[in-house]
Amino acid sequence: MAYSISKDAQQLLCEIINQISLTERRAEQIRIQLCRKTSFNPYACFKRLDSMNTNQIKPEQVVQLLKENDFFVQELNTLFNKTFLKEFLNYQGFLNIILPKTDGELREITAMKQPTKAVLEKSIDYTLAQLFNLEYNEAINLERLKTRLGNYYNPDQMFQSMDSLNNNILNFKDFDRFFRRNGLLLYEEELIAFFYRVDKQRTGQITLNDFRRMLEPLQKAEQQPNSNNALQTPKQTVISQPKSSNIFIDELGSSNKAGQIVQSRNLSASNKKKFQSNRRASSITESLQTTKLTENFLNDEQRFIDLGLEVLKLEMYLEEIKLKLQQQKDFNSMDFFHFMDLKNKGKVNQHEFAYFLELLQLQNLDVIELFNFLDKDQDGFIRYSDVSEFISPSNMSSTYICKKPAKNSLLSYSLSQLFSKTTIGFIQLLFNQWNENEIVIRLKKKQFLNEQNLFQIFNKLDPFKKGTFNRQDLQRFFELYNVKDDIKLLYKRLGKLNKEINYKEFELFFIN
User: Fold this and answer.
1) What are the domain boundaries of the chain?
2) Is Chloroplast tagged as a keyword (predicted)?
């Protein structure tokens, strides 16, 4: 059975829900206004705030933005943590704040803009400050209401009063019943906006934890400032309005300053709007799922970045081994190949290659997979160019590699006669490390394929819709996530360095 709370507490809870919804709708207006500006670039805005170039936005940097645009603030740390649930914002968190939630197409187009560090226009700078100022002002107003409500009941009791089915979740029907019970109406767009704010998982349901987070004051000690003012609204001391008033127009045509509380509307015969629960159910669920898909896509990009960095790390370690091998005075790539080429015909088949690996005492390698990796043209033979490319570091010129004199290839040499024990050890390490890299990368790719939409990632890599992307496109994509490493080795794994990659080749990298 649902828990019963007083009429005053119910009215106050309705006011809090209405205020959260209003905040989201006002913030969405600013987000759309911001993203529709042709010169707006999310990364440029992020770097404008990231003045210390730490790839993080901290409270004091937001304070500076607000002050420069005549929005004055004090003691922002606690408020910043509560508003954004973080001590600082990375680029992903910043995108989630400034990108629209109701316009999926505009959100995706804005997120796909090429990163730039251009100086922001004054209008963009002011609109960005407007968005942060709105968030903080509304957070202060909510704190007043939550402090008053906390003097009546705790969040668990209020949650139980709304949970009519006792299933520990609240959906839009529960909120509609609660408002109607208090003679109020929460319109469809208001309910959707409220869910965008509170339902962090985009499931269309509010859990008890979501509800607690919604009603938790910034500091519990502030819930009872003193016994005389327990039910009075505390004075606002943290944020003041800008010098130039910022007016918002809601859907009813009434203008309200940012931060002003709008009273809930009573139902009447003249202005009652027919409530269609079935239509609302499908509309709200579809809107929430659309936003969740877009946010998941941004997370998919980050997982692709993580996969790329893992591949890059493994390839760089392999490069170090190749470099050490080439630095051995007794090693020559021509000798190395001729030791494989038993019949001195300029090419090595799979049986000869397997025999070569046996002489190196490499028992745990997948011979077929390694042979197919080296056989670039897939004609069943490995040639000197294939072997030379495999054992040579990408940053070492072929002139240096070939300048070492090769021994007479027509004479018969054993492996120990050609190379020292140290050199043989590096050769063994090279093949073993390649094998271990392939096992790890294959596992990572499998995990990635279980979760990702490759075509969406490919479209991000192909910003000009050519049907292909090149190394520069891949580098720009990684720089968007503040990865400054040279991705040459990663691109080499995807395809040839001097060749553009199409979708089929991109897909084969994950499948093979």
Assistant:
1) 7-260
2) no
